[in-house]
Amino acid sequence: MSDTATKTKTCAACAYWDSADNTNGSCRRSSPQTVVFEVSSEKSIQTVFPVTSATDWCGEYKAK
Fold first, then answer.
1. Is 25 exposed, middle or buried, given 0-12, 13-18 or 19+ CB atoms closer than 10 A?
2. Domain boundaries, the chain
3. At the top level of its lineage, which domain of life is listed (predicted)?
4. How far apart are CA 36 and CA 6, in angstroms?
5. pLDDT digits (tens, 9 = 90+) for 6-51
């Protein structure tokens, strides 16, 4: 794949990307991931979408 094609198929140009600001957002391609946090011996469970940069890319790209 050429550099030009790679640059245009970034998260910022993907239909699955939810922008938080101009440089960061979250990938909504799949369901949110479960994350377990342990703080002061107490566990907290959250579900989150993967956070990505606008310039990141993957093999699941779909044009907006």
1. buried
2. 3-53
3. Bacteria
4. 34
5. 568 999 999 999 999 989 999 999 999 999 988 888 889 999 999 9
